[in-house]
Amino acid sequence: AKSSAQGVAKELIALYAARQRMQGHAFPPDDELQEEFEAQFEYAETDGQLEAVAEIKRDMERAVPMDRLLCGDVGFGKTEVALRAAFKCVSDGMQVAVLVPTTILAWQHYQTMLSRFRGFPVNIGALSRFSTPQQQRKVLSDLRTGTLDLVVGTHKLLQKDVEFHDLGLLIVDEEQRFGVSHKEKLKEMSSQVDVLTLSA
Questions:
Q1: In what order do the strands lie in the sheet containing 167-172?
Q2: Helix (H, G, I), strand (E, B) or coil at 9
Q3: What is the DSSP code (8-state) at residue 172?
Q4: SS3 of 67, please?
Q5: DSSP label at 190?
Q6: How far apart are CA 198 and CA 109, in angstroms?
Q7: How far apart are alpha carbons 87 and 56 in whole angstroms?
Q8: Intra-chain end-to-end CA distance of the chain, in Å
Q9: How far is Cα 15 from Cα 197, in angstroms, rounded to an integer?
Q10: Cα–Cα distances in Å, from 134 out to 81, 94, 138, 140?
Q11: Per DSSP, what are the bridge partners of residue 198?
Q12: CA gap 200, 189 in Å, rounded
């Protein structure tokens, strides 16, 4: 176990060092559509939310892959912060993957996204045990062709048959419930991707 842990640690150090040297995608500043999307949020943002959103956007606008951890108690609006980052990514023509630990959480996020992005040009899909084989095939096909902008899923997102047309942002929710190897596997699929990790 000790030898295995050391091996994983060496791989992670190499991966993070490589990410810092890589040319990432620099997203453009906010446009009117982003402002319109954010204005439709039905609650008043907290100072912490606004500060986190500003810092995440600043990271996304740099040409270095983002690695950011967003901490906050349940019910304090981490999801809205993440969705604003997702909208920024999709608005620039890139895809977003949201990795969650359970099927129920995937379904809840999917419903939230359908509601929050209603009226905006964002195509959303889900990949979990709730998806039928036919639905899964459609999601996988749409991810490959770029028809799907945003996908939320469980460990199924880590399967070998998952291919993105142009992944720009990975959001990992409840990261403490994933093993390190799970999270890093999706990062390795696109080493230049921005990563936002959510944790309570």
A1: 67-71, 194-199, 167-172, 95-99, 150-153, 124-127
A2: helix
A3: E
A4: strand
A5: T
A6: 13
A7: 12
A8: 28
A9: 17
A10: 32, 25, 6, 10
A11: 70
A12: 26
Computed over every residue of the chain, the mean pLDDT equals 88
d(CA 93, CA 168): 9
pTM: 0.88
**Sign of the Cα pseudo-torsion (143, 145, 146, 148, in order):** negative
CB 147 within 8 A of CB 95: no
Cβ contact 151:139 at 8 Å: yes
- Contact (Cβ atoms closer than 8 angstroms) between residue 31 and residue 85: no
pLDDT computed for residue 185 by the predictor: 74
Instruction: Specify whether the CB–CB gap between 97 and 151 falls below 8 A.
Output: yes
pLDDT of res. 19: 58
Strand runs (DSSP E) across the chain, as ranges? 67-71, 95-99, 124-127, 150-153, 167-172, 194-199
Q: How many residues does the chain have?
A: 200
Tens of pLDDT, residue by residue over 153-194, are 998 898 888 999 999 999 999 766 677 777 667 667 667 899
